[in-house]
Every structure is written in C-alpha cells, then in structure tokens.
Amino acid sequence: MIPFSYARAKSASDAVGLSQHAAQGKYLGGGTNLVDLMRESVEQPDALVDVTGLSSAIERRGDGVLLIGAAATNTALASHPLVREHFPMLTRAIVSGASGQIRNMATVGGNILQRTRCGYFYDDAARCNKRTSGAGCDAIDGFNRIHAVLGASPACVATHPSDMCVALAALDAVVHLEGPQGARTVRLVDLHRLPEGRPDIETELRPFELITAVEIRPLSAASRSTYRKVRDRASYAFALVSVAAALEVDADGCVQEVRLALGGVAHKPWRAWRAEEALRGQSASDTCFRIAAEAELADAVGLRDNAFKIELAKRTMVAVLSALAGVQA
Ligand SMILES: Cc1cc2nc3c(=O)[nH]c(=O)nc-3n(C[C@H](O)[C@H](O)[C@H](O)COP(=O)(O)OP(=O)(O)OC[C@H]3O[C@@H](n4cnc5c(N)ncnc54)[C@H](O)[C@@H]3O)c2cc1C
Ligand code: SF4
Hints:
The protein has helices at about 10-20, 35-40, 75-80, 80-85, 90-95, 100-105, 110, 120, 165-170, 190, 275-280, 285-295, 310-325, and strands at about 5-10, 25-30, 45-50, 60, 65-70, 175-180, 180-185, 210-215, 225-230, 240-250, 255-265, 270. With about 325 residues, the protein is of the alpha+beta class.
C-alpha cells in the first residue's frame, strides 16, 4: 500500500494550489483510469486533488461557442441536446467508448488525459519507455496489434485511446487551462504530443496545469457529422481504427467543408489535415475520398501485427465520407 493524501478542490485556483503542495500530486476526475493505474503501481501519486466538484456546466455563450466544464461527465456531454443537435459526431464518439457506468463516472478532463492501453505499459515486468524513460519498448518486437501506424517513433508505438478526443480534434476544440502562471488556452490538436524520443512526456501541459473547460466553436458542417469505430468486440473495446468526419457538399456536388480525424492509429488524436486539403473543392465521390485517404496514410508504417490498420483506416474513411455524402460506398 502506497500512502497518499486526498483533498477536494473548491475552485480551479484551489486545485492548482493543493497540487503544488505535493511532490507527485495528481488531479482526480472520475478515477476510471487513474485508480486502475494506481492499483497496478504505474502511477504512484502522493496526493490526489479531486476536481469533480469544479465546473461541469455545458452552455452556449452569446457568440455561439459551446463551453464545457472539465468536470462534466462523459454521459452528460454525450446526451446534451446542444451536442446531439450541432455536434452528433461527439455524441457518437463518446457513446462508442467504455460502458454506461464508466461514462457516468468519467469526466471530460480525465478523458482527455487518459493514458495509453498498450499492455506493456501496464505490465511492470515489461520494458516501457513511457513508464521509465530509456528502458526500451517491448511492444515494437512484441504483440503490437493495437499499436500506432502514424507518427510513431523507435521509442514508442503506443496509441491514444480516447474516442471523445478524436471528435474534439475534428471539431478543432480549444482546451482551457489554469496553472500557477495563470490561465491559457491550447488547441486540442496541439495538446497531445507525438512520442519522438520522450514518450513519457505526453502533452504540452506545464507542471500543475489543470484542464478547466473545453470550447467548441460553431461549425455548420458539424450538424452533418458522424463517428465510426472499428474494434475487435462490439463493446468494451478500444478502437483499432476510428474516424470522426463532418462534410458539407455544395449544389455542384463538390466538397465545401470537411473535417476528418482518426483514432487508434497514433500517439495522439490524428487530425487528417492532408486528406482535408486533398478534398476541399473536389467532387464528393468515392474516387476523391480514396485519393484523400491514400494521401493521409502515405507515411503510415505497419509493425508485425498492425499493418492491417493502414488499409482499414483508408476504407473506413471512404465509407464514412460516402455515407455522409449520401453516396453508395
Ligand atoms: C473497462 C474500460 C473500458 C474503456 N473503454 C474506453 C473506450 O472504448 N474509449 C475511450 O475513449 N475510453 C475508454 N475507457 C477510458 C475512459 O474513457 C477513461 O478512463 C475516462 O475517460 C477517464 O476519465 P476520468 O474522469 O475517470 O479520469 P481519471 O481516471 O480521474 O484521470 C485520468 C487522468 O486525467 C487527469 N485529470 C483528470 N481530470 C483532470 C483535469 N481536470 N485537469 C488535468 N488533469 C486531469 C488525472 O490526473 C489522470 O492522469 C475505458 C475505461 C475502462 C475502465
Ligand atoms: S509502445 Fe510505448 S507504452 Fe507501449 S511498451 Fe513501448 S514505450 Fe511503452
């Protein structure tokens, strides 16, 4: 048993102050990932600062921006009428993850910062650069079916497990932070890092920074959006590949606006910038969707067990875009 203290924060500044008093303090959301990691001794905080009492409001500001308190539960966000109406991909992404009970506990802040599901990361008998920098990586020559095909490095081939974050990446959500130096914002697509030589450094967060909220700006294409998750089982399975997509087609059948992000393929939610670029102004046809998917996956590298993800990602992108365009895939 490793002892730790517990305190419940009354405000964001209180939370930041409390975490600064500890050597290895962690913020506690629903605990659905952190507590598991503590049981496995992967995380060993000496203090938990419970942030579930902070803002969980989900409201539309005067400028149309949807502001989501970081303590909102995954269930509250997925079922909110504004989200269901204007950002259906976000609802679909959240409800495709975990189980109803876990989504009732899990918070938006905790979902964003949940850690990889690489089995070697959870196994303290395995070598893992994410757990111990410089230790090596047993996944590269091991069982790597669920691992990354884009943006990986010789140090780490893990993927980011969140479904919600894939939709937030496609929607270009902005994350609000509060830390000892004050408040700031970071685009979600810039928050998570690729592994490079330091997979143990997973985000651009500064020491003690707390996620306080997430904002999503209005996007007309998002009302025609969806999320498709391909996985080994119908429930309780993380994405092998997932696609969040929004598509707006003009009267001539050309792509006016498109947003695309992939899950299950990289160390971070993967915004498909190349595919978006390849599609804008092109005809909303299967041929153009395939060209865009090829462009996005052009640099993908498969390992022994996961090379199938490259073709799977392409086909899922085409299928999702075709469905949104009303074209028979
Ligand atoms: C059986 C099972 C199946 C699952 N399946 C899926 C799935 O299919 N798809 C999916 O996306 N997820 C899945 N999950 C993961 C689940 O979504 C996450 O565990 C959950 O979203 C984490 O939220 P939480 O509030 O419980 O975070 P916690 O476990 O409390 O915290 C997670 C991390 O976030 C940090 N943190 C929490 N809040 C803040 C904050 N406000 N600011 C800064 N740091 C913070 C914590 O310190 C910790 O490092 C599954 C989980 C389980 C147990
Ligand atoms: S892939 Fe990353 S998380 Fe998994 S064992 Fe290698 S270094 Fe660790």
